[in-house]
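Suppose you are handed only two things: the residues of a chain and a line of SMILES describing S-adenosylmethionine. What would the bound structure be? This form records exactly that question and the answer produced for it, so the two can be stored side by side and reused later without any lookup.

QUESTION INPUTS
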Amino acid sequence: MFSWFKRKRESLAPIERIRTEDFTKTTELYHYFTNLTGIHFDQKESITTPKLIRFAQGQGCNSFGELMEKLRSDSSVREALINLLTVNETYFFREKGQLDFLAHHSCMVSTPLRILCAPGSSGEEAYSIAIILAESDFPLSHVQIVSIDINTEATNRARAGVYTNRALHRLPAPLKERYFVAEGTSYRVDETIKKVVDFRSCNIFEAEFLELGFFDTIFSRNMLIYFDLPTIEKAVNQLKKAARNDQTLFFFGHADLLTTPSGLESRVEEGIKYYTLKK
Ligand SMILES: C[S@@+](CC[C@H](N)C(=O)[O-])C[C@H]1O[C@@H](n2cnc3c(N)ncnc32)[C@H](O)[C@@H]1O
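ANSWER OUTPUT
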């Protein structure tokens, strides 16, 4: 680098330096991330692009082109970007009507029950299901819940099973007492609940998802809202492959689907909407 240019560059304040670097070509980067995860940013690009610039600089990259090269060649950089850009908002007993419905429905079946949470974020959904089944005297020894998420930090938090009051705000106090152990200002999920859930870092679009086996109930709540319509169809196709049979129940978040995806049929019972495979 010419010495006058180097001096000039070094004397610039950080925000001016951004302008001398090439962080303009965002299209390829967004396209790459959407292809990887399914997540679309649409109108949120103006909030996300500054995050991407900071991320690229943190990785020592001077352009999005350089960042793309790193993302393609280094899985730990891909993982860090996914952890940065995925929205992991969740809490115990979210959309509880569906969980009560499952518990009620499960009391009528005697076979072992395999339940999938795809995605499960930091574990609140899977643990809520286990708690509600325990409360309805369903033998937990007959239950296996597999909870997957593409965000590895969320998955690690799920495995740790330690939560603040914010995550527990919908849980009635007696259940908090019964299923959690206080640790300072936090609460640790009791072992009886923890051992029912298997947490995995997994992308729903990757082949590893199809190795999880077959499930009697599939929850996929509040992930499809980040996908466009063709990607929703693609994700639902993956979920359909995980269904044990045409009795498998599918639950989605209330804002996830505008229409019934192909290959599924919707039902409403006790005010709760769920789906099964089309016969
Ligand atoms: C808003 S959270 C929903 C969590 C929970 N199901 C709920 O309703 O509270 C959405 C989760 O989807 C995960 N996610 C996004 N794309 C994914 C993908 N392709 N495969 C697996 N998980 C994904 C994100 O990491 C995030 O934790």
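WHAT STANDS OUT: The mean pLDDT is 92. The chain has two domains: 3-85, 96-277.
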